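Re: [ENG-882] Designed sequences occasionally contain unexpected residues at chain ends

Forwarding the minimal case from QA. Structure tokens:
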């Protein structure tokens, strides 16, 4: 092969590489600009273990359900962002900032309850920030009601209802409908046995995914 032909083939190969690079960057840019529909917030993390009973740490249960929820949302084509993906500490302000910066449409924080001197307490409840329905198509209370209904239906736990909590920073500082799902009571030995079950955690994740899908449908009407 003569020198000119070598140069020609080299230029063709270089051009092809440049075209591929442009395509990759274009797709990456499209993904980066894709709207985030849900911010998933696994409560606690790192040095903040949350409630701990019989060696079971709340932070671990919160993260397990959040990761299962992420899998559910992937299967449904719902975009999301996680405030943490591992056992790391994230401040309350940073959790809200992550959701606001991503312009998420919903914010769901996952937690578990505990009452030290009332070990018989049990059940599921959802806390919400009482923003006005005029500010958006879905109020915090409406979001909490949707989540609570799906959790109770799927898990069969005691229905402790939805509760207004205007002073909780993680939901007060977010710019979108926000709530905290309190899945169950770690301080209750019987319920704790359920909470550590992989099957129960997956059911909770499915319930949250169903609720998110319904809530997004309400927003997009």
């Amino acid at each position: 092969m003569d020198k000119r032909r070598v140069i020609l083939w080299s230029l063709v190969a270089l051009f092809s590489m440049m075209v591929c690079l442009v395509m990759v960057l274009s797709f990456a840019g499209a993904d980066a600009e894709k709207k985030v529909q849900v911010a998933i917030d696994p409560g606690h993390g790192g040095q903040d273990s949350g409630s701990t009973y019989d060696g079971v740490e709340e932070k671990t249960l919160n993260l397990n359900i959040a990761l299962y929820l992420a899998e559910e949302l992937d299967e449904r084509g719902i975009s999301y962002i996680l405030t943490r993906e591992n056992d790391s500490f994230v401040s309350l302000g940073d959790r809200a900032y992550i959701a606001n910066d991503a312009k998420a449409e919903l914010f769901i924080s996952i937690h578990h309850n505990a009452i030290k001197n009332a070990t018989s307490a049990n059940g599921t409840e959802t806390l919400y920030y009482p923003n006005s329905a005029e500010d958006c198509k879905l109020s915090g209370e409406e979001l909490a009601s949707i989540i609570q209904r799906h959790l109770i239906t799927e898990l069969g736990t005691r229905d402790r209802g939805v509760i207004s909590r205007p002073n909780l920073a993680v939901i007060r500082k977010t710019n979108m409908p926000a709530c905290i799902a309190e899945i169950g009571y770690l301080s209750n030995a019987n319920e704790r046995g359920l909470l550590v079950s992989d099957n129960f955690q997956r059911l909770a994740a499915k319930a949250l995914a169903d609720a998110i899908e319904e809530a997004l449908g309400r927003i997009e009407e």
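QA comment: On inspection the terminal residues look reasonable. The radius of gyration is 22 Å. Proposing we downgrade this to a documentation issue.
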